[in-house]
Amino acid sequence: MTKSQEFKDFEYQGWQQAAEQYHCSFGALTNQMIEPLLNAVKAQARTKLLDIATGPGYVSAQAAQRQCQVVGLDFSEAMLAKARQLNPDLKWVQGDAESLPFADDEFDAVVMNFGILHLAEPQKAINETFRVLRVPGNFAFTAWDILEKSAGFQIIYQAIQTYGELNNPIPEGPPFFYFSQPENCLQGLAEAGFINPLVKQISLSWELDSADRLFEAFYKGTARTGGLLRRQPERNLENIRAAVHEALVPYTQSNKVVLPMSALVISGEKI
Fold it and tell me: What is the pTM of this model?
């Protein structure tokens, strides 16, 4: 098995078991990027829009509210089951972002909300997006900003680095923060054929109702970081959890945890 396929299988298994927890923990955070994402592709009534890596279908649902003709695609049956539960009237398709099951020139707009971070070969997905877009067409995706600008990632990663067993690695994939660098985003768009690229930073706020929610969000609600956490011995896990609790004290007010986060929306045009 190739490294690419090994990582793809790892991500698939991770999301198969993370669907419900992702909905409960990350949904309120990642949903803050939907409006900027849809605005970046000029989504409006009668826009035929493909939502890649739709997960629980949040972007598709909001695009449908704009009266777009929406198709939501994901490789995880569990994620699509959640999407169908939340929005049974929308069109959901199981498929691979790196080999889209659609004809050339089929969509007016394509979006991907943080899905690019979980692909084995993200450039293939960007190239596929270009293929299925009509002329003129618009593509936009989101990615987390650099680690230093997102407290939630800083805290969990520092705790793992300090107290985790790092010699029990997960399958190797692309660097998680590769698209946090605007130059990498621009290069990927240009390689596929997109023009007029734009990278825009968006400040976010992640509100959690307890300190333990951050640990649980990553442990149960993510594929890559969760996979690393789930491979830890119990003593390491408890130390990581304790470190997370301690690091969250400055962000806790009135029994609420409020974390500053930052993300990017990256867009390009097919003309």
Answer: 0.95
